[in-house]
Task: inverse folding
């Protein structure tokens, strides 16, 4: 038999060097006489009209192999994107070289989700080359505005958590922090939503179909990842044993880099996304045995690991593939982080000074265990030294207090997939509980409550507890939420560790995307009025706008922009949802993931209430009413039956209301399909009022509330999450609060459980209309409606309903006063400085990561 080919050598060319290593001569150096040539031909791409036109045409003809006579908008988008990519890479290289030279502390932001949206417009604006490209492409026969719409969203996230990671990357880059994002390159992002017969249907989001110019494939940056296998115990001498994890299956993680340009800086940082690949391209042994299928199978299973993003928002589903994703992610990431650290030949004791790792929720918590494993099993550190390093490196952001969202993994599942990690988790827990016992002797219930292992059949690993124990700092994402963490969910841990470990960093959003990019007219007005665009890097400067809040001319300009944004959205709704909405209606918007705790159900119930009220009015009375368009968008998790029924109800109500001539001048209802970042950019600048109406104490922060108010839209909301802090900033007169407070909710729930009385009378009117079949077959909605009655109304819709309807009337009244409303809108934009993600990131840098900027000179 001929020898088998060396498949590893054939298929995996691994890099021998990864950039210059300080204090060490590089392995390859250009000959001195070749340096000028290198310098000449690696000079950054030109930033003048001729250069960008030349690179556009070069990409058209050479990269895409097309011609001027064989072009469409998509090809033009591709050529444009590739030219911008070249310029991003120039900046990226300069940044990385600078960081290698300075060797600052690196911040690693670990997130299973990055909801980036589109990149082209953002890159053009952050690099300040949009005008240049507009002129350059105009001469070539294209409009930049058309081409940016050709891009498909990078939708590697579900909602707020993933979008937060994206906003944070923009701020980290803009603030010149030496940061890396790490995540997974899912082949399928969040599903595409279409509405068929009023129901959500899901379609795969194969976003890479036409290539992705915003990633750099690094086929030579790969790491092996092991699953299963066994743990070998090695007795080195009488008091040393060592464990080695061996056997099992190995897959390979391949790096894909996504450059993230900062605004008005030379800095350009990186998000490194991992993709699963088979370790061997092909199992030749199986192949030679004639088992072709088995050989292909192995390839498929490793690629499966990173194939699809789990589409659940704030909901844990314990699928083994998800656990594999989490481990592949942290395993590859830590190898990369450690390799970068080791290039400088520092001792391990330097690691916490050089590396800070932030866990975006519990999804990357296995990283804590993995680092401990590497340090003790592979690097030979003692348990104590290793654990000291681990707990100085990690910090953890909690994103929710919803019980169904808290991650826990069955012990047998973890033990099977990651046997050594399961051992280490038990040890971490043992040492931790021994310490708890010392501090609180004879308190067995406390030990049970605080154990990382939840007892039962099976046992479970409580990931949040593991994350707390393995981190130096734990933060919530808004004041109320952080207080709930401290005083309720993790109370025992505060008593044990002390309050200083637990803190708050209120979320923020990047003003570059969520004002400058999505609302260019308003951004120009602000820049014109303030005489500078410095506000884009220091959002608190917006407060200088407040002196114009009573200025009639300024109000008129501000509201004219709002109107034009409403025209743009109305046009979008006409073409994508087939509903005509007059732009002079009040635009009342609720867009976010569909979830019971967010209470879109309560919103549509109130729309039904309004509908029947309007129908009961005389013609004269109707003339005094404020015309309203109630606009919904958002995805429901494919397995979340009740949430999907809410979408159906919204569409059924829309169908009846929109064709009823009695209310044609007063009420429109629409559900816009496929909510994503680029749709949010069209929707948000067009709101008069937006709804953030979660049951008090359930929405950790919310970030779309910030985006809306920043764009001069008011909030109708509950006293929850960041709504509270927004209210503090903009003033009580510029926000419409209603509903029970967080500390009243338990009382209401208790009463609901034993409720003999009926639901709120206004809500009863609405339920009766649904039951009578006004919105179609009531049997369809029965499971949804019964959550309010026999279901115990966990989200207290009934208890909040009266207050909600009253608040809606207050909104109507306020809207009738045009000047009054305009002033409120201006004040909203003016007073939102706090909610820039730059402020959040500076807060993390100062109080959690202890790092200062490292700007490229
Ligand atoms: C900002 C944003 C979210 C978060 O919305 P919340 O109302 O805070 O839940 C979700 N999805 C997209 C596309 C966003 O841009």
Result:
């Amino acid at each position: 038999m001929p020898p088998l080919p060396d498949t590893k050598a054939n298929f995996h060319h691994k890099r021998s060097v990864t950039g210059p290593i300080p204090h060490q001569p590089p392995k390859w150096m250009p000959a001195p006489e070749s340096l000028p040539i290198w310098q000449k031909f690696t000079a950054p791409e030109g930033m003048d009209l001729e250069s960008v036109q030349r690179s556009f045409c070069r990409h058209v003809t050479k990269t895409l192999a097309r011609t001027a006579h064989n072009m469409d908008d998509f090809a033009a988008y591709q050529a444009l994107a590739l030219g911008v990519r070249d310029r991003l890479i120039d900046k990226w290289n300069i940044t990385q070289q600078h960081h290698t030279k300075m060797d600052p502390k690196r911040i690693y932001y670990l997130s299973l989700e990055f909801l980036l949206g589109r990149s082209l417009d953002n890159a053009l604006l952050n690099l300040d080359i949009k005008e240049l490209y507009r002129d350059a492409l105009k001469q070539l026969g294209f409009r930049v505005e058309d081409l940016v719409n050709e891009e498909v969203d990078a939708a590697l996230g579900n909602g707020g958590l993933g979008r937060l990671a994206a906003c944070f990357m923009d701020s980290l880059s803009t603030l010149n922090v030496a940061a890396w994002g790490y995540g997974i390159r899912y082949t399928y992002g969040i599903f595409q939503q279409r509405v068929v017969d009023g129901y959500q249907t899901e379609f795969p989001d194969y976003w890479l179909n036409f290539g992705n110019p915003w990633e750099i494939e690094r086929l030579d940056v790969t790491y092996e990842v092991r699953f299963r296998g066994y743990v070998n115990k090695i007795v080195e001498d009488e008091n040393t044993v060592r464990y080695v994890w061996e056997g099992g299956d190995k897959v390979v993680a391949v790096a894909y880099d996504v450059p993230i340009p900062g605004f008005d800086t030379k800095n350009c940082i990186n998000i490194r996304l991992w993709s699963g690949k088979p370790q061997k391209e092909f199992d030749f042994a199986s192949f030679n045995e004639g088992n072709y299928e088995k050989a292909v199978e192995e390839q498929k299973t490793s690629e499966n690991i990173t194939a699809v993003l789990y589409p659940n928002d704030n909901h844990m589903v314990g699928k083994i593939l998800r656990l594999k994703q989490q481990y592949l992610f942290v395993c590859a990431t830590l190898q990369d982080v450690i390799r970068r650290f080791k290039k400088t030949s520092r001792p391990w004791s330097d690691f916490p000074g050089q590396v800070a790792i932030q866990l975006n929720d519990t999804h990357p918590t296995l990283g804590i265990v993995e680092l401990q494993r590497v340090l003790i099993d592979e690097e030979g550190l003692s348990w104590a030294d290793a654990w000291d390093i681990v707990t100085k490196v990690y910090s953890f952001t909690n994103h929710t207090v919803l019980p169904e969202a808290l991650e826990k993994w069955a012990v047998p599942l973890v033990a099977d997939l990651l046997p050594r990690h399961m051992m280490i988790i038990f040890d971490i827990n043992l040492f931790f509980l021994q310490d708890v016992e010392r501090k609180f002797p004879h308190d067995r219930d406390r030990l049970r409550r605080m154990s990382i292992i939840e007892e039962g059949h099976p046992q479970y690993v409580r990931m949040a507890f593991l994350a707390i124990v393995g981190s130096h700092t734990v933060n919530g994402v808004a004041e109320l939420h952080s207080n709930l963490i401290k005083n309720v969910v993790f109370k025992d841990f505060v008593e044990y560790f002390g309050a200083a470990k637990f803190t708050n960093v209120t979320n923020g959003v990047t003003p570059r995307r969520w004002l400058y990019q999505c609302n260019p007219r308003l951004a120009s007005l602000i820049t014109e009025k303030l005489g500078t665009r410095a506000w884009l890097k220091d959002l608190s400067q917006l407060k200088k706008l407040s002196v114009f809040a009573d200025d009639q001319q300024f109000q008129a300009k501000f509201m004219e922009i709002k109107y034009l944004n409403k025209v743009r959205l109305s046009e979008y709704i006409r073409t994508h949802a087939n509903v005509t909405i007059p732009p002079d209606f009040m635009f009342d918007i609720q867009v976010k993931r569909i979830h019971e705790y967010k209470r879109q159900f309560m919103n549509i119930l109130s729309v039904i209430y309004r509908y029947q009220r309007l129908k009961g009015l005389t013609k004269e009375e109707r003339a005094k009413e404020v015309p309203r368009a109630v606009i919904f968008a958002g995805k429901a998790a494919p397995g979340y039956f009740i949430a999907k029924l809410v979408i159906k109800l919204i569409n059924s109500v829309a169908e009846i209301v929109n064709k009823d001539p009695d209310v044609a001048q007063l009420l429109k209802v629409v559900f816009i399909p496929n909510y994503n970042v680029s749709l949010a950019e069209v929707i948000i600048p067009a709101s008069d009022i937006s709804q953030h109406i979660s049951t008090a104490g359930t929405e950790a922060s919310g970030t779309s509330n910030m985006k809306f108010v920043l764009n001069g839209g008011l909030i109708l909301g509950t006293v929850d999450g960041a709504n509270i802090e927004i209210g503090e900033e903009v003033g009580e007169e510029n926000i419409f609060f209603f509903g029970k407070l967080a500390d009243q909710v338990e009382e209401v729930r208790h009463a609901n459980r034993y409720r003999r009385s009926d639901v709120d009378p206004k809500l009863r009117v609405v339920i009766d209309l649904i039951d009578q079949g006004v919105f179609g077959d009531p049997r369809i909605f029965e499971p949804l409606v019964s959550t309010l009655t026999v279901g115990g109304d966990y989200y207290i819709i009934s208890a909040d309903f009266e207050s909600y309807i009253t608040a809606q009337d207050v909104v109507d009244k306020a809207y009738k006063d045009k000047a009054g409303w305009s002033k409120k809108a201006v004040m909203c934009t003016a007073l939102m400085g706090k909610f820039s993600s730059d402020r959040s990131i500076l807060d993390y840098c100062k109080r959690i990561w202890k790092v200062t900027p490292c700007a490229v000179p």
Summary: Residues 372 and 390 are 6 Å apart (CA to CA). The chain has a mean pLDDT of 95. The two ends are 62 Å apart (CA to CA).
